Amino acid sequence: MTTDNPYSPPNADLGDAGPSRRLGIRPHQIAQAIALLWVSTTCGFFASFSQTAQSRVTLILAALVMLAVTAVLSVGLWRGRNWARMLYVILVAVSFAEFLASWGTVERPAVEVALEAVSFVADAGSFFLVFTAPGSSWFRDTRPAA
Fold it and tell me: Which ranges of the chain does DSSP label H, i.e. alpha helix?
């Protein structure tokens, strides 16, 4: 038996194992943040109801898109994926910019404006939970350095 066999498998640790976490248990702040994400989505849907209710197809399509995006973000947050946190922030920032840009130019019922405000407050609470400890530690990749 020779150890110089070029066809033998490598003996070195390749480091291709999946990521491990310092935390064994998901912080309860993550579940709370996901619940606030769903509250925000629900409020946002009803806040945009008068804009999308002109046609039934538009309403159904808007609801399906909102549900799909929220479901993808929820799964990403639940699994500790940092891209989900970043995408969530970007989507809320774009929504908030659109809200501010239309302020005073589009006549909207007071109920819709209030629902939109509640939606942004829920988003702010969710951001606080996922960007501060202990929730933020759920998103750390703890693979050993190469």
Answer: 28-47, 49-52, 56-78, 82-101, 110-131
Which value, to the nearest 10 degrees, does the dihedral of the CA atoms of residues 61, 91, 68, 111 take? Answer: -60
* Cβ atoms of 76 and 37 closer than 8 Å: no
Reported as a single tens digit per residue, the pLDDT across 43-84 is 999 888 777 777 888 888 988 999 999 999 999 999 999 999
pTM: 0.78
CA distances from 94 to 38, 89, 99, 100 (A): 18, 9, 9, 10
The answer to whether 130 and 34 are in contact (CB under 8 A) is: no
Exposed (0-12), middle (13-18) or buried (19+): which is 126, by Cβ within 10 Å? buried
Q: Does residue 11 carry a pLDDT above 80?
A: no
